[in-house]
Amino acid sequence: VQDWGVTYDDLEPHYWRAEQMLGVSGKAGNLRGRIVDGGDPFEGPRQQEYPLPPCKSSYFSSLFADATRELGFHPSVTPSALLSEAYTNPDGIARPACQYCGYCSGFGCMVGAKAQPSNTILPVLKGRSGFELRTMSWVRRVLQKNGRVTGVHYSDDKGNDFFQPSAIVVLASWTLN
């Protein structure tokens, strides 16, 4: 048996980059090996505080946190890719703060406070040469030859069929698909 060859310390800088891009709200509980009140004391050591402070807690959540704290537990607000305040990420993408409307539990965010590909990644990709966004398209088949991907066969919303050659194919879907 062999451990995975990558450690948390190897990954932590990449988590930080993703948290900045997404605009993660939270409170560190272990900052450079020092336990911080209000955060999760059991998390791995972070080098940076979260980009944004934690989201607001409801009255019930506050009561629950007080009760568990009195019992000797360590309640903390779970970090979230939901903006607790207006934020501009390192890529220059500005988004407004959460309005606490409650619709995000099953839908996309109408103000853009919830991190999703349409408001974090696509604005950056649109500015790159060679990038083309093809909406309303459905991949029908991933084509391969001798065990290697050669591209995809897809259709658009009008039923037109296309072949897109590619050496790499990533099959992915947005959260709500």
Description:
This protein has helices spanning 8-22, 59-70, 117-120, 122-126, and strands spanning 30-31, 34-35, 87-88, 94-95, 138-145, 148-155, 161-165. With 177 residues, it is of the alpha+beta class. Strand 5 (138-145) and strand 6 (148-155) form a beta hairpin. The chain is extended.
List keywords for this structure.
single chain; 177 residues; alpha+beta; three-stranded antiparallel beta sheet; two-stranded antiparallel ribbon; 4 helices; 7 strands; 20% helix; extended
Largest sheet features: 3 strands, antiparallel
- In N-to-C order, the SSE pattern is HEEHEEHHEEE
Euclidean distance between termini CA atoms: 38 Å
Mean pLDDT: 92
Class per helix and strand makeup: alpha+beta
Helix content: 10-25%
Proportion in β-strands: 15-25%
Overall body shape: extended
Report the count of strand segments: 7
DSSP helical segment count: 4
Instruction: Please tell me how large the radius of gyration is.
Output: 21 Å
Q: Strand order of the main beta sheet, please?
A: 5-6-7
- Are there runs of 5+ residues with pLDDT below 50, and where? none
